[in-house]
Design goal:
single chain; alpha/beta; D-Maltodextrin-Binding Protein, domain 2; 2 domains; 5-stranded mixed sheet; 40% helix; globular
């Protein structure tokens, strides 16, 4: 009798363990089911600050998984317009990419949120690095034993900004033909986005890169700070920058957009067909908060421009209007 009772107790105990495990399994399933996910297509130059912003965002919203895909801003837009890839948020290194390629079909609004500037980036092993400066950088880049890289103007704003910087340098230094010389040299080192060039620099395949100051600082690289007249940083020099233009591909095959030089301004938007609009809205609000996302942007070398005027102010959701102005 005692033996039978003992066996019964063992059976009951084992059954209880299975029930408990099953219960925990169901809890895990429920937890996973509650996990939300948002996807951000973003400029390569936002990779470092976004990683930090997401870490802080998840402290407030632990049940939101943020998926990021970095690429040239124009390529990001093409993934939405041409490939119909699902996306919640688009953050561009040039706000006009959103204006020209995504509005009005894929989004209704655009908020300007950060700035940057063009530099010439190098490291200790770069040829002639001991002599390059803000006045002779173009002479160093044109030396026969020097190779430099830049990104693709049709894929990445940093690419067409490198072209604009070269054309402005021709005007600023009063050297006719300078831009053509720079832009026809080392074309084999043009890459889809600016951060693709870092590996070439680190492997000594190239000596210099046309690159944003923020990316140089985030990766601990040396750089030449260019004069404000050519670095596309200063809002006071908008008229001077506008003297330089570059043609890039438009929405349709065979169509081109003429880009004028202008101060660098990043833009962010929430897509109309965002799979998870509520969580995405919370992320954009976190990104644009002066003490949260913008503080991280500034720490990573990208000054904020919030609030800035928006041509789409009337279409900005009420929750985000405080971050822009008419």
């Amino acid at each position: 009798m005692n033996k039978l009772f003992s066996k019964l107790l063992v059976v009951i105990a084992i059954s209880g363990m299975f029930a408990a495990c099953a219960g925990k399994k169901e809890e895990r399933k429920a937890c996973c089911a509650q996990k939300e996910q948002i996807t951000i297509f973003h400029a390569g130059s936002l990779t470092v600050p976004l990683k930090e912003i997401i870490t802080e965002f998840n402290k407030e919203y632990p049940n939101v998984e943020v998926i990021t895909e970095g690429a040239g801003s124009r390529k990001c837009a093409r993934k939405i317009t041409d490939l119909n890839q699902p996306c919640d948020i688009m953050a561009s290194a040039d706000y006009t990419v959103i204006d020209k390629l995504l509005i009005p079909d894929y989004t209704d609004f655009n908020i300007k949120f950060a700035s940057n500037e063009m530099t010439i980036v190098y490291h200790e092993g770069s040829r002639h690095s001991e002599e390059i400066n803000a006045e002779n950088w173009h002479e160093v880049l044109l030396k026969d034993d020097v190779a430099f890289g830049r990104s693709d103007p049709n894929a990445d704003p940093c690419g067409y900004r490198a072209v604009l910087t070269s054309k402005l340098a021709e005007i600023y230094y009063k050297q006719e033909g300078l831009a053509d010389k720079l832009l026809s040299k080392n074309t084999e080192y043009i890459r889809p986005k600016e951060t693709d060039l870092l590996g070439l620099l680190e492997s000594n395949a190239i000596d210099y890169i046309f690159l944003y100051r923020s990316v140089a600082e985030q990766h601990g690289l040396k750089y030449v700070a260019l004069p404000d007249s050519i670095n596309l940083k200063s809002t006071e020099l908008s008229d001077f920058y506008a003297q330089a233009t570059v043609d890039i591909t438009g929405k349709e095959p065979g169509e081109f957009i003429t880009k004028k030089g202008e101060p660098m301004v990043y833009g962010v938007t929430l897509l109309k067909n965002a799979p998870n609009k509520t969580a995405a809205m919370n992320f954009v609000k976190f990104l644009l908060n002066n003490d949260k996302g913008l503080a991280i942007m500034r720490k990573n070398g990208q000054p904020d421009v919030v609030p800035s005027t928006s041509e789409t102010y009337s279409s900005i959701p009420a929750e985000l209007k405080e971050f822009a102005k008419q």
